[in-house]
Design brief:
mainly alpha, elongated
Amino acid sequence: TPSEQQSPLSPGAVEFMSLGLSIAVLLVAGGGLGYAVDRWVGTSPLFLLVGLALGIVAAVLMTVARVRKYL
């Protein structure tokens, strides 16, 4: 039956394919939150840059954690 068929991709391959989307979401979320705070406080681009930096740090940490499982 179709429900018993196995995917040709290993679980690790699926996780690595979703890695790019996860990185993009973290960067957009960090930048978006920073932009929103900038508009609310009336500063620019201070919190946008802080939000992007935090998004980058979060993306790197997430990537390292996911890749480390396979090393």
